[in-house]
Every structure is written in C-alpha cells, then in structure tokens.
Amino acid sequence: MQQRKRKHAKKPQKKSVKDLFNNGDVTGTIKDVTNQAAIDKAQKVVDTVTDPNEKSRTTKKI
C-alpha cells in the first residue's frame, strides 16, 4: 500500500514538468507557450515532494 501511494504521489510533479515541453519529452525542446509563470507553477508542485532524491531528479528537468 505504501509503495502504491508513493507511485501515485509522484505523478503530479512529473506531469507538471512534462507539460512544459513539446510532446512531454523533458529531453526535448520547451514549448513556445511556456513562460516563467508556467515554470514557477511547475516548481511549486515539485517543491511539495518530500523524497529528496525524487525532488532533485525532477527539479533538474525544469
């Protein structure tokens, strides 16, 4: 059950970061419509992550 909760808890921050990029590919190009407000919003979602390793990995993608 705990593993299941963790898995679901990771989805919002991953989605918020992927939404900044074309085709959701964080190794690709950022969307033309992505602005600082969108980046700040994604960062706020990532800031809610309590696992330091997951937070670090996700923050590097922003």
Backbone CA Rg: 12 Å
Q: Compute the number of structural domains.
A: 1
Q: Number of DSSP strands?
A: 0
The main sheet comes to: none
The succession of helices and strands, N to C, reads: HHH
Strand content: under 5%
Poorly predicted regions = none
Shape: globular
As a percent range, the share of helical residues equals 55-70%
Task: Tag the structure with descriptive keywords.
62 residues; single chain; mainly alpha
Structure description:
This protein is mostly helical and 62 residues long. The chain has one domain. Helices cover 63% and strands 0% of the residues. The chain has three helices and no strands. The protein has helices at 2-18, 36-47, 52-61. Helix 1 runs antiparallel to helix 2 (36-47). It starts with a helix and ends with a helix.
Write the layout of secondary structure elements.
Blueprint: H1 2-18, H2 36-47, H3 52-61
Helix pairs in contact: 1-2
Give a quick rundown of the structure.
Helix 1 (2-18) runs antiparallel to helix 2 (36-47).
